[in-house]
Amino acid sequence: MDCRPGCAACCIAPSIATPMPGHPQGKPAGVPCANLMADLRCALWQKPERPACCSGLQPSVEMCGDSREQALRWLGVLEEATRP
């Protein structure tokens, strides 16, 4: 499955605990990644500094749903369920 153009839910909804470019303390949930460009594409795509947690995340029917809104909701639910 390919990413839905103009979605970027996976660059907004989840938290990232490890330091990364633009987020030296990690990224909080619900905050757009500092590397998210205006066209909702990743500025670090296919670059070595892209975090492993990002490159390892693959789009799926379950995660992405039928719309950006569904993806944001699903990822938000996962974020809540895995909060320490």
Distance N to C terminus: 30 Å
Our count of helices gives 3
Assign an overall shape: globular
The proportion of strand residues reads under 5%
Global structural class: mainly alpha
User: How many domains comprise the coordinates?
Assistant: 1
Radius of gyration from the CA trace? 12 Å
Mean pLDDT: 93
Series of secondary-structure elements, N-terminal to C-terminal:
HHH
Find the count of extended strands (DSSP E, 2+ residues): 0
Largest sheet: none
Low-confidence stretches: none
Written account of the structure:
The structure is a single chain. By secondary structure, the chain is an all-alpha fold. It is built from three helices and no strands. The mean pLDDT is 93.
Please sum up the structure shown.
The protein has helices at 52-55, 61-64, 68-81. It is built from three helices and no strands. It is mainly alpha-helical.
Keywords for this structure?
single chain; 84 residues; globular
Please specify the SSE layout and strand pairing.
Elements: H1 52-55, H2 61-64, H3 68-81
